[in-house]
Write a structure and sequence with these properties.
The protein is of the alpha/beta class and 463 residues long. The chain has 16 helices and 17 strands. The strands form 2 sheets. Strands 1, 2, 3, 4, 5, 14, 15, 16 and 17 form a 9-stranded mixed β-sheet that branches. Strand 1 and strand 2 form a beta hairpin. The radius of gyration is 22 Å and the shape is globular. It comes from Janthinobacterium rivuli. It holds the Pfam family Amidohydro_1. This is Amidohydrolase family protein. Belongs to the metallo-dependent hydrolases superfamily. ATZ/TRZ family.
Length: 463
């Protein structure tokens, strides 16, 4: 990375030896810990040491969380982080082809390593700002080894917890010779420390030869899976023993009954995309949260990308909630029960955004709930803000009303990354300059004329 890019962020502060969060309303997402109307959380060397009332810790850094709700850090189980600087460039995209026109088929081909760095940094900081402490980074624009390095460097510099799923580009000229062998190089360079916040995965389609490389390295495999069009391949893969708990399938729309049985039997991890499935009309446009749940699979939630909409998990929970209610009411109406609803509620969706998302990422033993012994990934939400006060139901407040602006503090692995509503260690002026430079390069290279009021993204045709 050039000096301009590498100095966007200050070096990460050390993890405090002791930290004590006092007086929070605690939603633990752990049945043994339960929920605490007013309690304390003791963190020691990045790990949750105790949860209770009137905890004492000599020499601890104290955070007064009175009037705040503490929740586990949210987990985005599928995000194309490299697209960060393309935010809302295509807000009315109606199909996957529309999405690809504004990403893979145009700008992606001109990404330099520094553009990958800027996109990943911007996405990671946006996640932290919105209370997402872990992201599964679906990096399907790894054009060279240097591009992959830039993506990982950005995640490490931002201080987010991440699973970096390196993947081959979809279009354009790229260094095909480095794939998939680059994964072994990445593992040796970045991923020898088991305590690192960032871990490695592969992004690949239903390609057993590629999967074999990932399995030799012992890393998960992330796949964009559309059930209606791809389910027919599952039976053969399952019969050959090629599906397992190291598979993470995105979307899983329109999957038939047999497909769900196969995924459950094989232990495949699933995430669903309430907004992107609807926004881009993926198959029938309905996310698979309810179908997965009914088949004994607990899916995570994912934002997917920011090229059409925002990057927060609050909206994913709400869209999932209301789509489920609509579908339930429609079904009930057809059956003569006007007010029947699909069996979902706010708590289940908060599970999907936290503990279930952690399981999809393969990190449920480390994060996803406020549990003594787990890493301290947590979010403090101010309840005195005008849009939240009074809090008559803590879970309802988080799922149905809270916003990014209500997040006071974000802690990842015991390190404070947002405090007083501000993400720490960011040179805002340098960050904006780097984003502007990257956009300028990508737009010029692709022949794109920016239009702040465009109703659609016109495909770019280059000679």
């Amino acid at each position: 990375m050039s000096e301009q890019v590498s100095q966007l962020l200050a070096p990460l502060a050390p993890v405090p030896h002791k930290m004590l969060i006092k007086g929070a309303t605690i939603i633990s997402m752990d049945g043994n810990v339960g929920n605490v109307p007013r309690g304390d959380i003791l963190i020691a060397n990045g790990t949750i040491a105790a949860i209770g009332q009137n905890l004492q810790a000599d020499g601890a850094e104290v955070i007064d969380a009175a009037g705040m709700i503490a929740i586990p850090g949210m987990v985005d189980t599928h995000r194309h982080s490299w697209e960060g600087q393309l935010r809302r460039i295509n807000p009315n995209a109606a199909t996957l082809e529309d999405y690809c026109n504004a990403t893979h088929f145009s700008f992606a081909k001109y990404y330099r390593p520094r553009d990958i760095y800027v996109g990943n940094v911007l996405t990671a900081l946006g996640c932290i700002d919105a209370g997402i402490t872990t992201v599964v980074d679906n990096s399907h624009n790894s054009r060279t080894a240097a591009h992959s390095d830039a993506a990982v460097d950005a995640l490490l510099d931002a201080g987010i917890r991440a699973v970096h799923a390196s993947g081959a580009p979809v279009s354009g000229v790229w260094d095909e010779a480095h794939w998939p062998g680059n994964l072994a190089r990445l593992q040796a360079r970045y991923f020898t420390n088991p305590d690192s916040l960032v871990t490695l995965a592969m992004m690949a389609q239903l390609e057993p030869a590629q999967w074999a490389v990932a399995r030799q390295l012992g890393i998960p495999i992330v796949t964009e899976f559309f059930g209606g069009g791809m389910a027919a391949e599952l039976e053969s893969l399952h019969r050959q023993g090629l599906l397992g708990s190291d598979n993470i399938f995105n979307h899983c729309t329109c999957l038939p009954e047999l497909g769900w049985r196969i995924l459950r039997e094989a232990g495949v991890r699933v995430n669903v995309c309430p907004r992107s499935d609807a926004h881009y009309g993926i198959e029938d446009g309905m996310n698979a949260w309810q179908a997965a749940y009914q088949h004994g699979i607990r899916p995570g939630l994912s934002v997917d990308n920011e090229t059409s909409y925002s990057g927060d998990m609050f909206m994913e929970m709400r869209v999932a909630f209301y789509l489920q209610r609509v579908m339930g009411n429609c079904q009930g109406h057809r059956q003569g029960h006007r007010h029947a609803a699909a069996p979902t509620d706010a708590f289940r969706l908060l599970e999907a955004a936290t503990i279930d998302g952690a399981a999809v990422a393969g990190l449920e033993q480390r994060i996803g709930s406020l549990t003594p012994g787990k890493q301290a990934d947590l979010v403090l939400i101010r309840t005195g803000d005008l849009n939240l006060y009074p809090v008559n139901n803590a879970i309802g407040t988080v799922v149905h009303a809270a916003e990014r602006s209500n997040i006071d503090t974000v802690i990842i692995g015991g390190r404070v990354r947002k405090r007083g509503g501000v993400v720490l260690g960011v040179d805002q002026a340098k960050l904006r300059a780097a984003i502007d430079e990257s956009c300028g390069h990508l737009f010029n290279a692709a022949g794109y004329e920016p239009d702040l009021f465009a109703e659609s993204f016109a495909p770019i045709h280059l000679a």
